[in-house]
Amino acid sequence: MRRILAVDDDNDILEVLKYILEDSGYEVETLSNGYNLFNTIREHQPDLILLDIMLGGLDGRDLCKHLKAGKETHDIPVILVSASHYVSSSSLNQEGCPDDFIAKPFDIDVLLRSVKRQLDLAA
Fold this sequence. Notes:
The chain is an alpha/beta fold. It has a single domain, classed as Response regulator (Rossmann fold), CATH 3.40.50. A hairpin with a 2-residue loop joins β4 and β5 (58-59). It contains four helices and seven strands, in the order βαβαβββαββα.
């Protein structure tokens, strides 16, 4: 079973993501802040990370750059999610950038297609 780590400071969004993704056959771990991100990754070894851009005092774009620069984490697909920011398609798949972007509020089908596509590409 493919493992997904969803990181968002809004617990309602985490509950929705967990429900949708588990209903689609994924194992889902949630994290409500970015401070324990790397420990959680080591512990749960996700196949994909859904990462909110605005995480309280942290910026998901910076966390993504650290993930993509890390020896143990650079191959994990990262999908940034945000209601207040936009990541242009031209900036995707560049060094340190996310593998995909989903705007909030997200369409369930768009979310599931993006997750499947990134997991298929990483396989």
